[in-house]
Write a structure and sequence with these properties.
Number of helices: 2
Helix content: 10-25%
Number of domains: 1
Radius of gyration: 14 Å
Number of strands: 10
CATH architecture: Alpha-Beta Complex
Strand content: 35-45%
């Protein structure tokens, strides 16, 4: 089984959420939250700020910890073809500066402020739904029910 620890930014302003358009090596587009892998010996708090900068061009600060999501993706649904566990740490993040731009030489083709009602119509990672659920409900435990489908919601 593979394992990944990741940190994700939930940036909501004026009833819009900042989403990143990820393009897979096969050319498939999926909308997701800015964020990604926590590097070895890196603090997830620092990782989410780094990832926002890399993927969007924005400077950001963490406003608060929203919660943690842990899921096991069966081998039949994982891109790698082997069972995979993803542990995601979700932070509410506030943009403080910078200029919105695509990720240079990366998998994020663009980042867009998306009206929240439009999110339901997007082909998106379940990370988007988890992040928004944590932002809206702010559960004391920092945990929301699992979203099925191995991580992808297709519309």
């Amino acid at each position: 089984m593979s394992f990944r620890l990741a940190a994700y930014a939930v940036c909501v302003e004026d009833d819009r959420v900042l989403l990143a358009r990820h393009v897979s090596p096969a050319g498939e587009t999926t909308w997701t939250l800015p964020g990604g892998k926590v590097e070895h010996a890196e603090d997830p708090f620092d990782a989410v700020i780094r990832e926002v900068g890399e993927e969007t061009g924005y400077d950001a600060v963490v406003a608060r910890l929203l919660g943690v999501d842990s899921r096991v993706i069966p081998a039949t649904e994982a891109w790698s073809g082997q069972e995979h566990q993803n542990v995601g740490i979700f932070y509410q993040v506030r943009i403080t500066g910078g200029v919105l731009r695509p990720e240079p030489n990366g998998a994020t083709a663009e980042s867009v402020w998306t009206p929240i009602p439009d999110v339901v119509h997007l082909r998106r990672s379940s990370l988007v739904d988890i992040g928004l659920a944590l932002a809206w409900t702010r559960p004391e435990t920092g945990h929301v029910p699992a979203v099925p489908a191995g991580g992808l919601i297709q519309h």
